[in-house]
Amino acid sequence: MANIDAPIRMHLAVLSMARSNVPGMLVLYPDKLAHVRSRIPSWCAGLGFAVVAVLSFMLAHSGPGAIGGLVGAGGGMAVGSAIARRQVPQKVAAGGDSVTVIPLDSITSITSRKRRRLRSSLMVVSTLDDLEFAFRANAEQWSAHLASALTARGRNVQTSPAGLAVLSPHGSRSQPPWS
């Protein structure tokens, strides 16, 4: 089996593409950012809710209520996240269609965009190939880890209110998207 690097940070995130949203785990490695498709946390959340609902009907002959539903779904989500976390390193090492890999050396900027309809934010990662990857993840929680990983690879990182601008290791300045 190949040597697998330990992830720096791993968290649930949705990769938002043109017409679809792909649930999974966003993983930061010393040399890459990867998204691994996984529906296990969602399935486990539904299963947790169902277990609490069935137990409520069997024991109390009534529904679980809002708190019971939240406890069941939250517990199921936690179990599903733990299962997905254990599977991610092997899936990244194997590659395939369910894995999206962004080499850290290709990243030019990381910005945060607010989504009006859903009142959530997207972390947008731009690359040298003019590709943008939008993740439903909190950019503020990821920025410090991404900045330190990029700096460790010899990249110059500039912070601004709009996000991170990543400069080449030779100091040549690329135009940040917010200029």
Explain this structure to me?
The chain is of the alpha+beta class and 179 residues long. 36% of the residues lie in helices and 33% in strands. A 9-stranded antiparallel sheet has the order 4-3-2-1-7-6-5-9-8, sandwiched between helices. The radius of gyration is 19 Å and the shape is elongated. It starts with 8 loop residues before the first strand and ends in a 12-residue tail after the last strand. The model is unreliable at 173-179 (pLDDT under 50).
Give a topology summary.
Layout: E1 9-16, E2 21-28, E3 32-37, H1 40-60, H2 65-94, E4 99-103, E5 107-115, E6 120-127, E7 132-136, H3 139-152, E8 156-160, E9 163-167
Antiparallel strand pairs: 1-2, 1-7, 2-3, 3-4, 5-6, 5-9, 6-7, 8-9
Sketch the major β-sheet: 9 strands, antiparallel
Distance separating the two termini? 46 Å
Trace the largest sheet across and list its strands: 4-3-2-1-7-6-5-9-8
Proportion of β residues? 25-35%
Task: Estimate percent helicity.
Answer: 25-40%
Oligomer: single chain
